[in-house]
Amino acid sequence: MDIPATAPVAPSALTDLLDGRWAHVRRDARVRMSELPAPPVDLPTEEHRAQVLDSLRALVASGYPRAGFPKEYGGEADTGAALTAFEMLGFGDLSVMVKAGVQWGLFGGAVEALGTETHHERYLRAIMDLDLPGCFAMTETGHGSDVQHLRTTATYDPATGEFVVHTPHEGARKEYIGNAARDGRMAVVFAQLLTGGESRGVHALLVPIRTETGEPARGVRIEDCGRKAGLNGVDNGRLWFDNVRVPRDALLNRYGDVAPDGTYSSPIDGDSKRFFTMLGTLIRGRISVAGAAGSATKTALKIAVRYAQVRRQFENPETGDEVVLLDYLAHQRKLLPALATTYGLHFAQEELVTTLHDRRTDADDRAQRELESRAAGIKAIATWHATKTVQTCREACGGAGYLAENRLPGIKADTDVFTTFEGDNTVLLQLVAKGLLTGYQQHLHALGSAGMARFITDQVLGTVLERTAARGLIDRLINAVTTQDEETDLLERGWHLKLFEDREKHVLDTLARRLRRAGEEGADSFAIFNRAQDHVLRAARVHIDRVVLEAFVAAIDRCTGPAVTQLLDRLCDLHVLSNIEADLDWFLGHGRLTTARAKAVTSAVNELCAHLRPHAGTLVEAFAIPDSMVGAPIALGAERDRQDAQRSHGARELPRMEDSEEAVTP
Amino acid sequence: MDIPATAPVAPSALTDLLDGRWAHVRRDARVRMSELPAPPVDLPTEEHRAQVLDSLRALVASGYPRAGFPKEYGGEADTGAALTAFEMLGFGDLSVMVKAGVQWGLFGGAVEALGTETHHERYLRAIMDLDLPGCFAMTETGHGSDVQHLRTTATYDPATGEFVVHTPHEGARKEYIGNAARDGRMAVVFAQLLTGGESRGVHALLVPIRTETGEPARGVRIEDCGRKAGLNGVDNGRLWFDNVRVPRDALLNRYGDVAPDGTYSSPIDGDSKRFFTMLGTLIRGRISVAGAAGSATKTALKIAVRYAQVRRQFENPETGDEVVLLDYLAHQRKLLPALATTYGLHFAQEELVTTLHDRRTDADDRAQRELESRAAGIKAIATWHATKTVQTCREACGGAGYLAENRLPGIKADTDVFTTFEGDNTVLLQLVAKGLLTGYQQHLHALGSAGMARFITDQVLGTVLERTAARGLIDRLINAVTTQDEETDLLERGWHLKLFEDREKHVLDTLARRLRRAGEEGADSFAIFNRAQDHVLRAARVHIDRVVLEAFVAAIDRCTGPAVTQLLDRLCDLHVLSNIEADLDWFLGHGRLTTARAKAVTSAVNELCAHLRPHAGTLVEAFAIPDSMVGAPIALGAERDRQDAQRSHGARELPRMEDSEEAVTP
Predict the structure, then answer these.
(1) Which A residues 213-242 touch B at CB under 8 Å?
(2) Average pLDDT, stretch A216-229?
(3) pLDDT tens per residue across span B222-263
(4) Acyl-CoA oxidase/dehydrogenase middle domain: which residues (chains A, B) (predicted)?
(5) Chain A residues whose beta carbon lies within 8 Å of the beta carbon of residue B172
(6) CA distance B558 to B347
(7) Same structural domain for residues B194 and B93?
(8) Confidence class for position A2, pLDDT limits 50, 70, 90
(9) Is A644 a domain residue?
């Protein structure tokens, strides 16, 4: 393969592209966050919680929470800025990011999106200012993914004009609720609304959980979830409600209301549609998690790449010098494809944020569902990418990567839950797959085996391929390919795009056919769906793979400088070809690649790793993470200093070994 | 595919097989370890260290450390029992396992294996009794994998009859040394031995590091490595030596000695050969880590499978019942193939322990090298399997899996370093690959690019396939296959064995040819090796895959009951076919499977998952991990109780939803 030489570029040129539309938010955050305490290395749980609360107060002082709230209450109504700020918090102590997300994203977001003017007037300023710390009490011990079946009840009592909030049994206790164990004063409680003896589905109510003096409110029991793998600066807790009475206007009544006499009314017909409309307003949580996962991944990569650039082990017998880790192909393969994909996900994330920000208030259901589906898919793929990459970075730094001072243990532990909170990734991908089958606007949210099963029996299945924002560009690139697959240059972008599109279409078509056929044969709908579950998950994955690639391509198209363009083109090549390599069994098994071309893909990944190796430093510096926030001594020259000292003094002190073979320590 | 029905078996029948030759050690350990404190959920570092030291004292009282030491000093000289005991410690607090490993395996093992009678007489009893807590000070900040190039020096001074131990620069400080930060009194220090102005390579010396009162000894500086990702009950530290003088007999002189006048002598010619002989005596460390990784994996699987058997989420619309997680194909695919491979690795581990235990003292170099290579390979594969499986189990338990009380966070954090200590896995696999190329007895240990590069230029390359212990059985099974590949039943064991053997041979042959060709073309030896590094790693992996499969097959052959045999046969099928599925790109790309057969493999994995699902409980109970050691509430019925309460009371309390679709919480 003939790869044209790639000229060096300044990291700052890349940073400009990465910073994108909300560059001012990112620049501010870099300054502001450097003033917060560094992620702790070894702090007792209570001290960590106190420190995180202080950090939230510092954020309030800097005006941080205002971005996402309406202007009438002192906010800035800038969704993109709010989401970008959350993403930036991902570079610091992730407990701060999560606690801020609970307070302003989930709690504040629910009051804003599900409440009406009364609630806004009464609470939004206090929420922004952290005078009213609150919780988002949705998940129960027995129902996490299947939240439509929550068991907590809110029964309207017309005699007193109150709702009675109650935990009917142990499985209905609220679980893992952030801000509950220590700081929360109020909670948005999701519960089955009962009025006039009828259930109206899940609604949200504001319930005080602590008094002014910090004691649990009457009828409320609070338990601390205790130590977790990570995020120990967040006070997660459990909540039980023993017939707790709240006034009628505690109901966040934008989508459903109860009159004094108990009459229920709603602008949306159907419990299910209403519930999913309510959930849909909370899409920002998933986007924020995906963004923070990206930031954590970048920090980990910066640490591992910097270390790999200075850490030496084993001599090169040709030169007598010890070899820098990043010169080993095996080490390049650990870090560089992950770095390439991190860029791709960054651009996909920005596209998602932009789409949400620019969404018209009169957007149709279909556009809304598509956005929700994309947010779910990118959240799943970005958080799994984080889990895998942070793990790889830890291993790539050996023993040094295991020391808390070098940050990777904390990043790993903190991000680990990202794959299962704000929607379990496996469940989310099923949501995505379902959205890809036609007719999806009606049943988008019906998830799990049940929803899918009903869906496949109800619908005429077919598939559509939704294009991302860069529609025109993608078509142009695909149409530019005139050669046969086998003859096309492996670095031809149009071929990449075509290959990804073709894979997605094939996987979806065969899935639709398979489900339809099984349905026609009269099989049990649960069994049909369940047997195809691996196929369903694959469909979602390859869809998101295409979305990410198209975002990457669109970002390169925005580059103005030829040098930056060229570097990103090679990075995108590595992203694409390592993705293809990871899925070679599919491409071979479906006749998309010959065995000769499959081997060429593997060789090309190796060549691209070698080609990009001199640019690895630039690519991680471009994230512009301040050194004070990276923290890790191994990333900040400590290792280089030691190695320099060793090479200039130590090595010469010893007589040369006659036999300089290398070994492994037990 | 037609899978014959598998009858239920009692877990105890499987336990008998799993417990194997050292069943008495395992039974004892289950009782003894239940008396130790449980792995802590949230203990400050210093308290955890104190607790772990107490646990070591309790082990002393129970006679635990005696198994591995010579009878003359009160030991039992039972290597297999000692290794099995370490494996069992893997079910408890892994800090105890690692600290015990440092004290009795590494420190005590080095004194025994590298020292002579003087040292044995003087120290072994005190080491066994923990009266002399010690360290194994090999790794340095600058040299971890490449320990032959350590920079610490031990210079003999004939004027005083002493060695002067010295840390010449910062990169030569001893790093991550267990027992150093708090408890160690003495260290086996690995250093370049200098006498008469000549270097004699790396040797080990006993150096006191603390006084009776616990102060650092004169000239010794000690620093605490501080908090780590896990294993915080182990006090890892750094050591610097400033011209520390120790008497001549501090040298562990079995393989190299210095006379009073400074004359050096050794029974082994050549610094390199001597050093690797010394390292070879320490093989038990790697085997112990692999064993403990297996135990931790089993605990994680037991927790995740028990939870998946009772945890319900989403309704089955056909029945109206909420579905148990383990009934979902996606969930089965997360846990069951991992469980199958855990069995395979268990049997491979036992074979390894048995081989080491039964090794004749006059075993030739070749047998010794082969054993070391196998230990290295199984350590790498078993620890990566642990890292991946524990991660999967954590995710499979969702938020509950993130709570420290449910053990998975601790297991994950503690085992994480297993992939990079006692030999970095990537480096170890290179050692294995090299051992597989002929002529390997001469250069086995020459590792990294340098060793490999010299090796490939020096040697005529070829490949040999070493058979595991079950040679006759394997041949018989392979020869029993008379059909063509395409027509052979997918569950035919002989076909599996042939396929694995053929893959290994092909990967090795092509690797050998590739290296030879590049060498003939005169390429830079470092570059040759480096460009083939992914191929090298693959060769090692597929070799170990075969070793594990053959051990699995041999274990099934030892079964006496037909029901146990049948169950293990299906489990082995799942292990094999999911391994093939993970490597489908290779089998397709090399014409070993047609696309139709590749698809059949995927279907078969799905079918085997469904088939084995009713046996999942049995398969994890068979590990016979006492509940008191599992600890996790979600594995001990707490979740079942909650779900029972919910189904019998809660669900009926609510009016049924008209629309029972399911959702996902943000």
Answers:
(1) 225-230
(2) 98
(3) 999 999 999 999 999 999 999 999 999 999 999 999 999 999
(4) 135-244
(5) 646, 650
(6) 11
(7) no
(8) confident
(9) no
